[in-house]
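Table S7 (text form). Paired inputs.
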Amino acid sequence: MSSAPPRSPTPRPRRMKKDESFLGKLGGTLARKKKAKEVSDLQEEGRHAINSPMSPALADVHPEDMLLEENEERTMIDPTSKDDPKFKELVKVLIDWINDVLVEERIIVKQLEEDLYDGQVLQKLLEKLADCKLNVAEVTQSKIGQKQKLQTVLEAVHGLLRPHSWALQWTVDSIHGKNLVAILHLLVALAMHFRAPIRLPEHVSVQVVVVRKREGLLHSSHVTEELTTTTEMMMGRFERDAFDTLFDHAPDKLSVVKKSLITFVNKHLNKLNLEVTELETQFADGVYLVLLMGLLEDYFVPLHNFYLTPDSFDQKPAPCTGPVAACGCTDSALAALAGPQRGVCL
């Protein structure tokens, strides 16, 4: 009687390896789900921090933007401010200006924060405006190289602006971090310093959401950032004339200058039997100024075009708000007496 052949033992180690592989895959899946949930929680926390009663629109928050260290902060423009027509106009004017300046370089800027953060376009812009050459690498791919280049460019900018006591509202980190508010502050400063042939929209301000991490939680606050003021204040910021020098260094001689001006004015107004004794009060309503301009340029301003004795602010001759030629006031004396490219509309 023959005995049955022995059976091969069951490959238990292989089954255990298979089980271990299954558990490993299960563990990896659970780990990925946990990580995704943490990112989702951080995103939700960031949205909750920004979606406060002061900000009716929900900001577009990316999960990586909310991965903050303790006491670290992020800033972003409130979506409602981005939709402001004046803000959009400011961005468009600055983009068009940059493209006009760099047209020979064949550089086209479409989005400020994406095209200017690495310093490449800013370098070309500054070199063109200041007619200089910066000692920086032409192309830098690494983050460290970009920041070093940006540091060199901004130091050159600061060298131009510091003598004029300009408040620097940007840093290397903010520009490289694609902070649009910081980039706009920088471009507005450059446009004003180099007297760009553009008209910046007045009184542009934005609501900035500041998110800071404290004790593991995100806290938000809102800050109003003023980007532009009035055209006169912006474009006249760096213009200091002889009177500024007089006030700064020889205020005691102001009376001598005023006496000379009164003598000059009366030399012409006496032809109309008029006399000035006090500049501040007698030129305040604009009547003597109109008559003086006519006398200086040898033309007659019809008396029915203005009030000789204005009783209210509306009756006083008002400065023109646009270019001289735009309102028909083309005489050079109007621009010279009333200010750069401004006339008097009667």
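Next pair, protein 2 of 2.
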Amino acid sequence: MSKEDVQHMQNLFEELEDIFEKIWHGCQFEVFGSVVTGLALKNSDLDLLCHLRPWFNQPRAVYVIQARKILKSYSTRFRNVLAITKAKVPIVKFYHIPTQRRCDLSFSGPLAAHNSQLLEYYMLSDERVLQLALIVKYWSKIHHFTGENLMPNYCLTLLVVFYLQQKNILCPFISLQQKDDVRIVDVWNTAFTRIPNKCDTTESLYSLLGGFFKYYHNLKFDQCVISLYTGRLIEREKFSDIQSVPQEYESYCANVRSELCQPIRLDTCMCVQDPITHSRNCAVAVHPKLAERIIDLFKNAVDLYDKESSNNFLRNLLYTEESPTPTHKPFFRKDGNKSFGITKLSKRNQRSNQRARNCKRKFNNNKNRLNNQQITNN
């Protein structure tokens, strides 16, 4: 996404503030996610955060429903408005017609914005970081394993950052936090110093890309916690008991003991710890079958890297058809805008769905006939 694309979005921010100011006085909008970190692709959704005044303290799902109702009343500006209230973070999905941009609006705490600022720092620390992260993100899109109900893009980016920490290209997050610099947000210290990067490694982007796949192909995900805070792998067993947690995690231990947060989840195929929110496992959505498929994709990439020349590796990595594609592919309208919740099914699935609808129709007809007969008898 170009700088011009990002600047064009300012119209969207101003329009949303004008609309919602009438209902929630003093609200402010902030962008986070891939647009901030520089990882936004041309078709990336825009992640927005609405900050409300402290006296608006109802459950977030309430504001999501209200926002959907408001946006639907501006049908010439917004369409495909959908409220998702059951998710861990309730959001409103919509399409902004003037900017032709799909958006996700949430009313959660500001931690997401601080995470984006940290990733932005890492992406700008070395020109190879952003380039590597973009290639890996595009590779994940080609093979359909990141996104909604899959591995989060944020989690995949953390894997890239952690790998570069092992190469001494990026520093651990703990080294960016000074003891006298504290900014607590939702019980976590979000403050960090943007230390100028002093990396002496001259390894090429091509070599780093191949090394990324090899590192995670050989990693035993089920035995370790990937800690960007310390910049090293930590045995899962150490987090199973608060007494054995590494000493760097003083705030985590204090928050768990005070019941200000739950212990980090360890019963997952992968455990990628958020560098700021230490109780958050960013890979909880990666179920066993998805984890197995991702590891297979790492293996396929390593095989390509070992046997192909540098000219053919990237081409075959991004355009290969050998990886399985999902049964349901996203359906796009002719104008290129994704229709939320609509999928294009295979003919076999279409027949199956039609049979299910026919059975349901027959069931409802029989139910109505029995009800009418009972009314007549009475």
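The chain has 13 helices and twelve strands.
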